[in-house]
Design a protein that fits this description.
Elements (H helix, E strand, L loop, with lengths): L1 H21 L1 H7 L6 H24 L10 H24 L4 H21 L14
Helix pairs in contact: 1-2, 1-3, 4-5
Amino acid sequence: MTRLLLASSAIFLGLLGLAGTFAPAETLVLLDVDPLPAVVVLFQMAGGLYLGFALLNWMSRNAPMGGIYGKPVATANLIHFLVVGLMLIKQVWRADLGNGFLILCVLYTLFAAGFASTLFRDPLSGRTPHKPA
């Protein structure tokens, strides 16, 4: 299950990274955002970060995840998807941002839930580990 989570998040982040790096103005227009020069530069910077995260997830997809194994990768992904997901929920709730942002909001929330589940799961049994009394 973690292999699918890491591979799908790598593809998702890779697509966002490629769009942000190589077609920032066009992507911003698709999202109905005014492509001001400063916004385009920030979006390109974010694109580079997304590509790095995508490669990290892709290269980690065969490693054990959960418990102490892969904890840095699972934690970094959880923080990224949780923080951006909460920010998107807040913005979609407050303003009419369109379907593109709503789709991003749903995907980020699902990835956050997946990485939260992975972080606290025993990688060998697939269950939440029991703590001794």
